[in-house]
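<goal> How does this chain fold?
<body> The protein record starts here
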Amino acid sequence: MKKVLTIAEWTEIGNKAKDINRNLNELCTLLSERLNLQDYYNKWKSADKAFDNLRSQLDDIVCDRFPNLPDREITHIFYGTDEKVKS
């Protein structure tokens, strides 16, 4: 039987996803601006786009699992600033 994640657990996942996204963006900037390695930049940008698609899918899952929460609150989990996880 699958475990049902709480909103606090989804928030923790969302915070980690935001960290990964920030790091991917920083790496893309480093490769393109500082090192001028366009080929590597394009590969990392492709990974960044794939990760954005994954975040969007996770956002959809949370929307389905918590229909009573406002969309703005759910979207904040994956796209807003980091939050403290409420126990």
The chain has a mean pLDDT of 84. Helices lie at 7-34, 38-65, 71-79. The chain is about 75% helix and 0% strand.
